[in-house]
Amino acid sequence: MKSTMIKAGVVGATGYAGSELVRLLCRHPMVRLVFVGSRSYAGKPFSEVYPNMKGVCDLVLSDDDISRASALCDVLFLALPAGIASNCITSELLEQCVVIDLGADYRLSDPAVYEAWYKVKHGSVGLLAQAVYGLCELNKAKIAKADLIANPGCYTTCSILSLTPLLKAGLIKPSSIIIDAKSGVSGAGRSEKLGSLYCECNETIKAYGVANHRHTPEIEEQLSWVASEGASGKGLTLQFTPHLVPMDRGILATCYADLNTGVDAGQVAQAFHDCYDGEPFVRILGEGVLPETRWVKGGNRCDIGWVIDRRTGRIIVVGAIDNLVKGAAGQAVQNMNIRFGFDETEGLDVAAAFPL
């Protein structure tokens, strides 16, 4: 494993995902955080915005100057809204540092699909071919060589990890997939929004983005690659419905699919073990043992369990992650570890906090 420390920067450091990145990077033994950027809080110490970081990260926040940050860093994390990164990242910048983008700009291979779902024009279509989708358990070898890594979305991470073993082993009908997912309020970001106010989201649960949520094409593209063993990133169509629930953190994805004829419980269990045995951040709970968000909160793990409904011939797979850790900042650090030759668990191998 690599033993040389690297310099890191976070642009968009005061959002929920960005601040979680700062927290994780400050405890990483092989990283020196040298840049924190925020358009809204430039000139203020990071610990003034997040007092829990006083004495841990007192760096003064700079403007979100990606070009200047790249000259200071070996790795630069971008925690920005869609449409910004693609207009700032260039081939020349990627020669200076590795970029791990927590936004959506490089997750989809087809710019037309990106522009249709995100309603913004892609600013660097020429870089899409070299961007690697950073779902660590699926693309580790490519991540290790990449200079531009597209960190997956939170819903997508949980859904893809939950369904990949079944598709890879050919145990389910791809056209039958339905994903019913729930997210904590932090998934909506830290900006002021009516729907995120306490009185608007406490003591209620609601579906949103029904039939048009932006994570849908990302899930479809990646699962299409899995189902076709890399022959094509297109073709699979599924139903995805997200819900907002009154908790701070967490994603719970309940995934339904029709089993192929003759598939038994042993084949299902073997498929999950074939995919994830040896993966440090996926815990296979097994049949009949279903995950809860409280057991992954604050940690980088994805818990997966399932039930086979023999009456209907379907399987119900349930996955749980912390949307800010495995669904964002933790996975970004995991990507960094792989790319720079550190132990994959460095700075991340901590149990979930409970109660929290």
Helix proportion: 25-40%
Ends apart, CA distance between termini? 34 Å
Q: In one word, what is the shape?
A: globular
Q: What is the CATH fold-level name of the largest domain?
A: Dihydrodipicolinate Reductase, domain 2
> What structural class is derived from the secondary structure elements?
alpha/beta
Order of helices and strands: EHEHHEHEHEHEHEHEHEEHEEEH
Q: CATH-wise, what's the superfamily of the largest domain?
A: Dihydrodipicolinate Reductase, domain 2
CATH class of the largest domain: Alpha Beta
| Poorly predicted ranges | none
Largest sheet: 7 strands, mixed
Total number of helices: 11
Give the second-level CATH assignment, the architecture of the largest domain.
2-Layer Sandwich
Instruction: Give the number of domains.
Output: 2
Folded structure, characterized:
With 356 residues, this protein is an alpha/beta fold. The chain has two domains: 6-130, Rossmann fold, CATH 3.40.50; 155-323, Dihydrodipicolinate Reductase, domain 2. Helix content is 29%, strand content 20%. The protein is built from eleven helices and 13 strands. It has helices at 16-26, 46-49, 66-72, 91-96, 111-118, 136-143, 154-168, 198-201, 216-227, 265-276, 325-339, and strands spanning 6-11, 31-37, 75-78, 98-101, 132-133, 148-150, 178-183, 206-207, 239-244, 251-258, 282-287, 302-309, 314-321. The chain has a seven-stranded mixed sheet. Strand 5 (132-133), helix 6 (136-143) and strand 6 form a beta-alpha-beta unit. The two termini are 34 Å apart. The mean pLDDT is 94.
